[in-house]
Structure formats: structure tokens, C-alpha cells
TrEMBL record:
Keywords: Membrane, Transmembrane, Transmembrane helix. The keyword Zinc does not apply. This is EpsG family protein. The chain crosses the membrane at residues 24-43, 85-103, 115-143, 155-176, 188-204. It holds the Pfam family EpsG. The lineage of its organism: Bacteria, Pseudomonadati, Pseudomonadota, Gammaproteobacteria, Oceanospirillales.
Length: 206
């Protein structure tokens, strides 16, 4: 069954490449197929702990929990009565929607080449750490705001990084590469430092 779905996925990717169009319908099919393959979850050493964390999430407190964004999602999943596999499917699907928005923005008709190369890398099926994958998708989505010149979009980008920080504690690593020496950027730099410090103080366990 898995092999058949994977073959269909590759065929759809190749068809998309041949058509050389953005075809949102084909992209939706690809996202759904990838979601199914990734969302079921592989049986690895981390799987047990992710499943255990999901089941126990409904009784955990946000106080002292250093990644409250993911805990909130787990609580929502429990409230909706979703099993762990169903929760994974939901998270992976929305993560791929976010990634696809950015891909269509920067790759346009070449987007199917990305899907094809990604799917050829078979290890994606065994993605267990969906918390990290979801956090990554938020950062990728936020990157589209850096394609604009307006400072407001830069602030929006760092707001998304703040959201990312609530899912995976690595916020500061995405602050590199910006020229804060330009006129007016010093305030932005101060804003970044303040925001990151704020998240670290509130959401850190220590």
C-alpha cells in the first residue's frame, strides 16, 4: 500500500514537472499524499516519547513548559478527540500548506521540481519529530515576508520567528544575515533582542 502511494506520488510530481505550470490541484494531491506517508509515523526510538507526550498533554500546565506552542496544539488535538496518528496527519498537512505558500512565491512553475527532488529522498517518510518539522514550516512561510522592502514585513517575519520559538527553542539562529547597520535598523535590532529575551524568560524551564 505504502509503495503504491509512493509511486503515485512520484508520477504526479513528474506530471507536474512536464506540464510546467503551478497547477494547485496537482499540488494539493501531492501535499495530501506526502501527508499520508509522513503522518502515519515511523516506529523509531522517538515515536514512543512523542506519543506519550501527546497523551499526557491534556494534563500538563503551560507554566514552565518551554515550548508552549506545541503543547497548545497537543491540547487542541486532545480536545478534538484526535488519536496521535490523526494529530500527526493534521500537523503535517498544515505544515506543508505553509511550505507550499512560500514555494509558489519563489519557484512559481518550478515548484514541482522541488516536490520531485524532495520525494526522491525517501527518508522523509520516516519523519518522526513533527514538532521540529512544524517549526521549520513556520520559518519557511515567514521568509516570504523578507521578499518585500517594507520594514513592516521584516517585523512580521520576526513575529513569526517568535511563534516558531514557542515550538522549537532555536529562535536566535534565524537572526543572522541581516544588516543592522543601515539607517533605522538599530531599533529593529533592539526589538529583536528584546523579543527573544522575552520569550526565553517566559518560556524557559530555567
Amino acid at each position: 500500500m505504502t509503495l503504491a502511494i509512493y509511486i503515485v506520488l512520484l508520477v504526479v510530481c513528474i506530471v507536474g514537472v512536464k506540464l510546467n505550470s503551478k497547477s494547485y490541484f496537482l499540488q494539493f494531491i501531492i501535499v495530501c499524499l506526502i501527508t499520508y506517508l509522513m503522518g502515519r509515523g515511523a516506529l523509531t526510538a522517538d515515536t514512543f516519547y512523542y506519543h506519550k507526550g501527546y497523551v499526557e498533554a491534556q494534563s500538563l500546565s503551560f507554566l514552565g513548559f518551554y515550548e508552549p506552542g506545541y503543547l497548545l496544539l497537543e491540547k487542541i488535538g486532545n480536545a478534538l478527540g484526535l488519536s496521535y496518528v490523526e494529530f500527526r496527519l493534521m500537523v503535517v498537512f498544515f505544515a506543508w500548506i505553509a511550505i507550499s505558500v512560500f514555494l509558489n512565491k519563489v519557484l512559481s512553475r518550478k515548484v514541482f521540481l522541488f516536490y520531485l527532488f524532495y520525494c526522491v529522498f525517501l527518508i522523509f517518510i520516516d519523519t518522526v519529530q513533527i514538532r521540529s518539522f512544524l517549526a521549520f514550516s513556520i520559518v519557511v512561510y515567514a521568509l516570504k515576508f523578507l521578499l518585500f522592502e517594507k520594514r513592516l514585513h521584516v517585523y512580521v517575519f520576526f513575529c513569526f520567528i517568535g511563534i516558531y520559538d514557542s515550538y522549537k527553542r532555536a529562535c536566535i539562529s534565524y537572526f543572522w544575515g541581516f544588516d543592522f547597520k543601515e539607517k533605522g535598523r538599530s531599533r529593529l535590532f533592539a526589538f529583536i533582542i528584546f523579543t527573544n529575551f522575552h520569550f526565553c524568560v517566559i518560556f524557559s524551564r530555567w
